[in-house]
Amino acid sequence: MVVGSIVVMVGVAIACGGDAPIAPGTDLPRPVDDAAADGLRTVASDEPTAFLSVGGTASDDVWVVGADKGAGPAVVHFDGTRWERLQTGQRGDLWWVHATGHRQAYFGGSEGTILRFENGRFERLRTRGLGKQTVFGVWASPAGELWAVGGAAGRDGFVWRMRDGELETVPLPRDLPRRPDGEVPSLLKVWGDDDGNVWIVGDRGTILRSRDGGPLEVVPSGTTERLFAVFGAVGGVTIAGGTGRGILLDGADSFVERQPEGAALLQGVCVSADGAGWAVGQKGLVLRRADGRWSDFAHRPPSAVESLHSVWCDPTGAAWIVGGNVMSPRLDGGVILHHGPGVPTLPREADVVPPTAPVCPEEAVDPAPTRSIARRWNEQILGAIRRDLPRPGVHARNLFHLSAAMWDAWSAYSPVSDGWLSHEKVVADDVENARRDAISFAAYRILTHRYGKAVGGSTSGACFDAFLGRLGLDPTNDDESGTSGRALGNRIARQYIEAYAADGANEAADYADTTSWQPKNPPLVVDEPGTSVVDLGEWQPLNLSIAATQNGLVLPAGIQSYIGAQWGDVRPFALTRSTPAGAYVDPGPPPGSDVARLRPWALEVLRRTSELDVASSETFDASPAAIGNNPLGTNDGRGHPINPATSAPYAANVVKVGDFGRVLAEFWADGPKSETPPGHWNVIANTVADQPTFGRRLWGDGEPLDVLAWDVAIYFVLNGALHDAAIAAWDVKRSLLGPRPITLIRFMGGKGQSSAPSLTAYSAEGLPLVPGLVELVSEESVRSGRHAALAPFVGEVAVRSWRGEPGDRVADVGGVEWIRAVDWLPYQRRTFVTPAFPGFVSGHSTFSRAAAEVLTAVTGSAFFPGGFAEVEVKKDVYLTFERGPSETVRLQWATYFDAADQAGQSRIWGGIHIAPDDFVGRRIGRTAGLAAVDKARAHFAGTAVP
Question: Is the pLDDT of residue 417 over 70?
Fold first, then answer.
């Protein structure tokens, strides 16, 4: 269990005299509503967050919870005198609260969250809930038995029960009502009584009951309306709901509908011990029950709320009502209403103090102060990339232009080498300082131009300013006249900005698509089962309910936009087309749309995701002695017999398969806050150069270069190759539009199984049955327990794979279990799922092979310094998709090619590429890397410019 901190902000309605200033963060009192004695009083209105639930034990122990608008869920408590705003230490909306004692309560919410508040602290309970699941209702018996219900995206209803500290999933009855598409409906609320009855309601008119801890049974409701709320009443329960209209149901073994005339849908209900009650719903509707009859309680809502979502009757007979804009994703405009003896209003929080000017974190001002000036500016662009959206082509272009400008600034003082864009030659008395100034002003101007308006640009700009200031240079000095290093750097920067303004990237329009691409396939809705395609061989954009980029930046939810559709039109470094309409590098035939051809590749992805099982004890040797040394475009290598630097064999590196796969997928994912694949290979090149034994001999021969000469040279050729790799890969992506595994697996799994025409769900377009990996759900497999969790889906194809992102990624794992093939997900964050561009070819594979070719050529050896490199990944703290690894893992490589191949393989483990994406990408990367090496040789030797 994870214990969250609590910060209490106490707001009291007080009178303030005079004009004394109010300290920032002070809760500001608001006037008490002067409602009529029998009316509803406004306790809060127009709150930033919608309030979703209210509950308590007494009029001096009232809880109100709601949405998370960026700083944690809204939680407020009333103790009979004052209101407190509490911080849970968690993120995500809270949809329900159930109080069990004075200042003791359970809370349910998004991302499978159940919180417990006790002894002044919030604690997150371990549920094994997934990030896609929402707990809509919780209830605890006096004996401490906890029930929780919920669903995911309007389906996949679930019931959890906790007894004696152990949480279990309660099987749903087989005769549970289904949605029209056959899916299990969401379950929305739970309530129990002192006689051992537990009631659960949900979509499609679902009413379930458990008697004395027994199995759940369906109670006929007589309706298919969505049932939102349930509350105990004399002789049974009262249930509220509706879709286009509101309904109220009373009963126990059977139900009678009490439809209020003209009522909109109802979302909350409560009934007092004397039979009086309240029901609330859409557009601020309030109904009151008296003498067994429901009638409209005339009132004027304090604001145009979409719905009043919850109502609670306290023991004194007072009613507490909450809501807001809860019928849409807005989840704002929170209101609290009260009927009964007067209570103080909820104090408003003071307006947020406007943000101050952006400041660069101290650790980001100069991360490598002892390194060369080129390295220090390289660190600046890597920091900017980590803050920005993960657009690999954009960042590869920026890395190249920065590197080429730094090369030009260095070459201006070299009698031999040729610049790339600027061919100036200047003389300086102090060449070292002149080069420092020229490189710095060129880098500063280019980076501020390229990243000033990017995501995170204000912080990046502050870092560029701060670093230039730390060098003792003035960022406002943009004079280009003369032969000073400053003037030269400013001239070079202007040349690059102007020369590449119209290079095909569409920089002026924030790199928007210039090709007018339109998808052939409808979007794949990630939270719905299966998929529908017009052409299985073409990429299908995703429709995400919650969207984020690969480096964790939250975006508006919806359909992915193609990133980099025009990138094949960008001006390259060294690549040339054989014909104007031809590809830079011929990829050969694409994966195509033939299911028989695609099936083995989809099956390989399924095998890899099935192996991401933290519960498995299977191990293998991941050392360079056992893996790597692959022929180009294959995984056929069997490792290296000897380390050439030591003449000794490599030591074994035994790791769990599940840990290795998860670490590999995340290390090379270049995910949250990453420098993306092009930047990652800059980090690797920097790490190589930092090794004490590294000689910095260009092409592996001759005298060692000084540190700056090496850095400007390696950045120039490396980032030229990475820039071309992006262009070549995205050129193929745009022309061939290869699919992603999620489309293939869901499509085939939805078709059925392709192994046996005599069995259920046969289709020639289905998945092959593979024991332990792809199986049919049958009555027998359900009874045996093998597919018990899939009981509602007998006759469908199941795959053993990763369940999905856990709700608590710090403490839990998604785990590998039997899931429906139509629900398959890659091992990725649920806000990302797959990149927003086609799969064929893999950018990771192309970038990585290009970089490996460059490092091999420039260093004169394919082997890392000392013949060995490794990254140690600590137990339980490294992974971000879920907790892990379960043991410390070491990724090891002998050669740059071994590392590059693992980068490509990681995309298979991560579930976002199939084998041809990887293998062909490696071949394209080789061509891009070698072309860059040849181009750079001429500039290094001074033979590029006549």
Answer: yes
Cα separation of 576 and 40, whole Å?
A: 75
pLDDT digits (tens, 9 = 90+) for 577-589: 999 999 999 999 9
Q: Residue 671: which pLDDT band, with cuts at 50, 70 and 90?
A: low
Q: Take residue 345 and report the two structure tokens written for it.
A: 């209003």
Contact 237, 230 (CB under 8 A): yes
Q: In terms of Cα–Cα distance, which of 480, 467, 483, 474 is closest to 373?
A: 467
Supply 239's token pair: 């249930």
Single out the residue of 161, 165, 112, 96 nearest to residue 803, CA to CA.
112
Instruction: Give the span between the Cα atoms of 917 and 909, in whole angstroms.
Output: 13
pLDDT, one tens digit per residue, over 866-913 is: 999 999 999 999 999 999 999 999 999 999 999 999 999 999 999 999
Are 835 and 677 in contact by the 8 Å Cβ rule? The answer is no
Alpha carbon separation from 290 to 255, 271, 279 (Å, rounded): 19, 10, 12
Residues linked to residue 53 through DSSP beta bridges, in sequence order: 65
Structure tokens at 761: 């769900």
- Average pLDDT on 709-735 reads 99
Q: Give the Cα separation of 266 and 783 in Å (integer).
A: 39
Per-residue b or e along 341-368, where b marks 16 or more CB atoms closer than 10 Å to that residue's CB: eebbbbbbeeeeeeeeeeebeeebbbbe
Q: Which domains does the chain have, with CATH numbers?
A: 41-339 (2.130.10.10), 362-509 (1.20.144.10), 524-941 (1.10.606)
State the Cα–Cα distance between residues 844 and 479, nearest whole angstrom. 41
What are 49-92's pLDDT values in tens digits? 999 999 999 999 999 999 999 999 999 999 999 999 999 999 99
Cα gap 662→910, rounded to integer Å? 8
User: What does the pLDDT look like over 456-474, one tens digit per residue?
Assistant: 999 999 999 999 999 999 9
How many whole angstroms separate alpha carbon 838 and alpha carbon 537? 10
Q: Which of 163, 187, 183 is nearest to 96 (CA)?
A: 187
Contact predicate 399/717, CB 8 Å: no
- Rg (Cα) of the chain, in Å, rounded? 32
Q: How many CB atoms lie within 10 A of CB 833?
A: 23
d(CA 575, CA 929) in angstroms, rounded, equals: 10
Q: What is the DSSP string of 613-645?
A: -TT---EEE-STTTS--PPTT-------SSBTT
Cβ neighbours of 648 (radius 10 Å): 10
Q: Which two tokens stand for residue 573?
A: 């470094």
Kindly state the average pLDDT of the residues 109-120: 97
Q: What is the pTM of this model?
A: 0.93
DSSP one-letter string for 334-371: EEEEEESS--PPPPEEPPPPPP-S----HHHH-S-TTS
CB-CB contact of 421 with 401 (8 Å): no
Q: Where are the beta strands (DSSP E) in 780-894?
A: 797-802, 816-820, 869-873, 889-893
d(CA 704, CA 707): 9
Residue 113 C-alpha from the chain's centroid: 17
Q: If you count them, how many residues does the chain have?
A: 946
Q: Span 748-765, mean pLDDT?
A: 99
Phi, psi of 90 (to 5 degrees): -125, 170
Tokens 């979302």 label which residue? 267
Task: Round to whole Å and give the CA distance between 499 and 488.
Answer: 16
**Contact status, residue 782 vs residue 791, Cβ threshold 8 Å:** yes
